[in-house]
Amino acid sequence: MINDVDGFSVAARQELFDVIAKIPMAYQKVNAIFATPERKQPGGGGVFSIFVSDLCKGCAACVTACGEHQALRMVQETEEVNAEHETGTAFLNLLPDTPQKYLGLYNDASPQDSKTATLRNMLMVRRNYDALVSGDGACAGCGEKSILRSIVAVTEAYMRPIYHAKADRFIAKAAQLEQLGTRKLAELKERNQSEYELFHQAVAHIVMGLGGEDEKDTRARIAAHGPISDADIVAALSAVLRQEAFNHKQLQSVDGRLANGQAVMAMAAHTGCNTVYGSTPPNNPHPYPWMNSLFQDGITVGWLLGESFIVDHGRRSVIPERLTDALLGLRIVDCGLRNEEDGNARDAETGGQSKSAIRNPQSAIGSVITAREYYEYAHFSDTLMTDQEILELPKVWVVGGDGGMGDIGYQNMSKVMLQNRPNVKSVMLDTQVYSNTGGQNSDSTPMLGGNDMNVFGAASQGKNTEKKTVAETFLAGHGSPFVAQISIANAPRLYKAILDGLEYRGTAFLQCFTTCQPEHGVADDMALTEAQRVRDSRGAPEFVFNPRLGETYQEALDLKGNPSIELDWYEAKIKGSNEPYRYTVAHWCATEARFRNHLKKISAEDAAKLISLDNMLARITQQDVVYRRYLRADHRSYVPDFGVYIKLPGPNGEIEYRSISRQLTLFCVERRKAWRMLQSKAGIRNKEYLAQRSILADFDAGKLSQEELFAHGEELLKERVKSM
Question: Does the domain at residues 396-415+425-558 carry the CATH identifier 3.30.2010.10?
Answer without folding.
Answer: no
